[in-house]
Amino acid sequence: MTIIQALLFFAVSFAASIVGAICGIGGGVIIKPTLDLFGWASVSTISFLSGCTVLAMSLYSVGRSMAAREKRVDLRTGTPLALGAAVGGVVGKQLFTAVRSAAPDPDMVGGVQAVCLALVTIMTLVYTLKKASIRTKKIDSGAACVIIGLALGIMSSFLGIGGGPINLVVLFYFFSMDTKTAAANSLYIILFSQITNLLTTLVTHTVPDFAAHTLALMVLGGIGGGMVGRRINKRLDDRAVDKLFTVLMAVIICISLYNAWHYLGA
C-alpha cells in the first residue's frame, strides 16, 4: 500500500471516529464499508484495521470519560452488556473465520458482510425515524443484559464494525436511554467487544497481512477523531446528534448496497 493510500485511510479513520465519538457508534460502521469501497486491501485486512482503530478510539473516549468522572455510563447495566459483548466478539470472530474459510471466493465474504450491514442499518434507520412513537422498555436483569450484549458482540465482530448503530437502537429500546447516555454506554460496550476480538485474532494466529504504517496512521486517526468528537458531543444537544445519526445511516446504507453489488453482482 502506498503512502498516499495510507494517508487516505488515516483521513477516513479520523473523520469516522469524530462522528463515531459524537454518536456512540465507534466509527467502524463508517470505516469498514468506506475502505471496502476503495478495494485497496482484502476484506480480512480491512476488518482487522477497522477493529484496531475502533478499539483505540473507544479506549480513549471511555478512558477520558472515566477520568473525568462522567456518570453517563450505567455500570450496573453497561458492564453485563459489555461482558456479553466480549464473549459475542469471540463468537463473531469465529463465525467470520468459518465463513471466510468456506467461501470459494474472498469477495463473497465482503458481499455477505455488506448485505448484512445494509439490512441492519435500514432497520436502525426505520427505528430511529419512528422512535418517538415506540414504547420502550427498562430491563434491569443482569442475565438479560448479558444475552443482549452477546448478540451485539456477535453482530459487530462478524461485520467488522466494532458496534455500530445497532448498539444505540438496543440501548434506546430495551433500556430507555436518551441519545447521549446511549452513546456513552455504546462506546463502553464496543471497548470490551473489540478487546476480545483483537485478543482472539492474536491467539488464533489469524492476523491478516497489513502495512505497519497504515495501522499506525489509522490508530492515530481513531484517537484524534475521538478527541475531537468528544468535544463536539459536549456542545450538541440530543436533537442535533439524532439528526447527524440519521444522515449517517442513510449514507452507510448507500455505501453498503453499492459494496454488495460490487462484491456479488459485478
Task: Lay out the secondary structure.
Blueprint (H helix, E strand, L loop, with lengths): L2 H21 L4 H11 L4 H25 L7 H28 L3 H25 L11 H18 L5 H11 L3 H25 L8 H24 L2 H28 L1
Task: Please characterize this protein's 3D structure.
With 266 residues, the chain is mostly helical. It has one domain (3-265). Helix content is 81%, strand content 0%. The protein is built from ten helices and no strands. The chain is globular, with a radius of gyration of 17 Å. The two termini are 24 Å apart.
Measure the end-to-end span: 24 Å
Q: What is the approximate shape?
A: globular
Mean pLDDT: 88
How many β-strand runs?
0
Keywords:
266 residues, mainly alpha, 10 helices, 0% strand, globular
Summarize, please:
The chain has 266 residues and is an all-alpha fold.
